[in-house]
């Protein structure tokens, strides 16, 4: 058996062993806590949002790197301080008041506020939450802070842009109407409201109900066309008054309103311009233009009469050529305006003969070579007479080229094919047909059949093929006649 002294010694050894073991456990726990603290610090420092922990005295106990960067200070310059040490007095008083409310109410608080940082004023989204221990006692305030300065600036820019666009939208003197796919009005500018004051409010109504007082969509509706095709459309439509009566005209330009993601048409933008005054002016201008054209035509006809008074045998020739040339041009699809130019050129195509002696024009025998060469000068002389007159059509060129031929055998320039203007090609055929079908001092009339035989046999050689085909068809199928004038 062990003695009392040995027992005491053994107990002391065991106690020492337990002490060392306790120290090891304590060191391990402390290291584990330090490692966990460092890991937590790294995690919190890596967080882009700012994190702040204050105690109930509202003293800073912990801040992460994001908050340090915001204030431009090191962590040890912040911890242990209060808001009064870090911010201007007015800001510090507000932050303290907010923190006290969180502590007293035990309720979170969220708000946006402008805070002074190292780089100046910043807008922050601040969420403050009470830190509560197991007994339900508040032991601190945890603040999570996000820098929303760029977002606020973007929102402000968007508001400014929206305000600007709204002012532009309202100030446009033409009408703007935005419709959905059911033709229901979504938005209009002030001009549309003024035009349709009787139907206010417009938003929420179908466009044909509000603008036209109808129960069904209009037949002439560019908005419907946009929905069907997905492409812009245009239409000039009657403008109606309070009782649905026509009070003018509007140009309506309709554009698809596209979805930014899918590209699908989700509505229509109508741009509406009141063209009543313009239409009235156009009508007045058209009347004045028609009157002017009649005056010019009468003057041209007078010139033609002067020429033909010198040549009794060819009296009416230019008028008949004009009738035939216009008929051919009409069949070829020329516009009314273009035909008016051809008519005037035909009426004076032989005006250059005023320089040819009457005895040569009326000579009953075949002309000598010298006399024929003198006759051949009349297109050039006619051109010289007409070139200084500012016609809206190339009349002088038509007169100059009416004796040109596709193969270059014509005169006075020897032009070929596409070098000859379309109108001159028509005059050439009409001139030949009328001349051969009519009496001349040096020979009797050859008749229409001979004239058509001439142009048909030289179709595509001397005369334009399409013009020849139309001319023949006029006489053989459509009953055209060379009437006396």
State the major sheet: 5 strands, antiparallel
Report helical residue fraction: 40-55%
Which structural category do the helix and sheet elements fall into? alpha+beta
Please state the CA-atom Rg, rounded to the nearest Å.
49 Å
Strand content: 15-25%
Order of helices and strands: HEEHHHEEEHEEHHHEEEHHHHHHHHHH
Distance between the termini: 165 Å
Supply the number of helical segments: 18
User: Mean of the pLDDT scores?
Assistant: 84
Low-pLDDT stretches: none
Q: Could you give the order of strands across the largest sheet?
A: 2-1-5-4-3
Number of beta-strand segments = 10
Report the principal-axis shape: elongated
Structure characteristics:
single chain, 485 residues, alpha+beta, 5-stranded antiparallel beta sheet, 18 helices, elongated
Q: What's the structural blueprint in terms of helices and strands?
A:
Blueprint: H1 4-46, E1 50-55, E2 60-63, H2 65-71, H3 83-86, H4 89-105, E3 109-117, E4 120-132, E5 138-147, H5 149-171, E6 175-180, E7 185-188, H6 190-195, H7 207-212, H8 222-229, E8 233-240, E9 246-258, E10 265-274, H9 276-309, H10 317-331, H11 336-347, H12 358-361, H13 369-375, H14 378-386, H15 395-401, H16 422-437, H17 448-457, H18 465-476
Antiparallel strand pairs: 1-2, 1-5, 3-4, 4-5, 6-7, 6-10, 8-9, 9-10
């Amino acid at each position: 058996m062990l003695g009392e002294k040995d027992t005491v010694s053994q107990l002391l050894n065991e106690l020492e062993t337990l002490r060392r073991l306790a120290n090891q456990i304590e060191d391990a726990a402390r290291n584990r806590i330090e490692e966990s603290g460092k890991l937590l610090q790294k995690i919190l420092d890596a967080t882009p949002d700012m994190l702040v922990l204050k105690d109930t005295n509202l003293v800073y106990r912990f801040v992460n790197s994001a908050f340090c960067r915001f204030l431009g200070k090191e962590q040890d310059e912040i911890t242990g301080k209060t808001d009064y040490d870090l911010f201007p007095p007015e800001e510090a008083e507000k932050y303290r008041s907010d923190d006290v409310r969180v502590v007293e109410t035990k309720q979170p608080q969220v708000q946006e506020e402008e805070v002074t940082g190292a780089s100046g004023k910043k807008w922050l989204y601040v969420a403050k939450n009470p830190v509560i221990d197991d007994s339900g006692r508040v032991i601190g305030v945890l603040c999570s802070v996000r820098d929303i300065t760029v977002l606020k600036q973007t929102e402000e820019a968007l508001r400014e842009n929206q305000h600007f666009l709204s002012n532009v939208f309202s100030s446009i003197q033409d009408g703007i109407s935005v419709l959905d796919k059911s033709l229901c009005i979504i938005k209009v500018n002030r001009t549309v409201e003024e035009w349709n004051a009787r139907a206010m409010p417009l938003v929420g109504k179908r466009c044909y109900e509000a603008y036209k007082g109808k129960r069904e969509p209009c037949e002439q509706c560019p908005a419907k066309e946009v929905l069907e095709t997905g492409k812009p459309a245009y239409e000039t439509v009657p403008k109606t008054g309070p009782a649905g009566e026509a009070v003018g005209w509007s140009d309506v330009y309709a554009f698809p309103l596209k979805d930014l993601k899918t590209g699908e048409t989700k509505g229509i933008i109508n741009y509406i311009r009141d063209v009543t005054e313009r239409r009235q002016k156009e009508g007045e201008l058209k009347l004045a233009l028609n009157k002017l054209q009649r005056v010019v035509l009468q003057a041209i006809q007078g010139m033609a009469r002067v020429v033909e008074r010198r040549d009794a045998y060819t009296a009416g020739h230019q008028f008949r050529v004009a009738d035939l040339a216009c008929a051919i041009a009409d069949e070829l699809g020329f516009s009314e305006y273009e035909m008016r130019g051809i008519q005037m050129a035909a009426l004076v195509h032989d005006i250059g003969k005023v320089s040819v002696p009457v005895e040569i024009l009326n000579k009953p025998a075949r002309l000598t070579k010298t006399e024929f060469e003198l006759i051949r000068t009349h297109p050039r002389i006619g051109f010289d007479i007409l070139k200084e007159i500012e016609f809206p059509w190339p009349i002088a060129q038509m007169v100059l080229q009416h004796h040109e031929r596709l193969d270059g055998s014509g005169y006075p320039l020897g032009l070929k094919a596409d070098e000859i203007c379309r109108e001159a090609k028509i005059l050439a055929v009409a001139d030949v047909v009328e001349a051969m079908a009519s009496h001349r001092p040096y020979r009797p009339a050859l008749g229409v059949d001979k004239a058509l035989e001439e142009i048909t046999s030289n179709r595509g050689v001397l005369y334009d093929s399409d013009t020849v085909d139309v001319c023949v068809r006029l006489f053989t199928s459509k009953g055209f006649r060379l009437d006396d004038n």
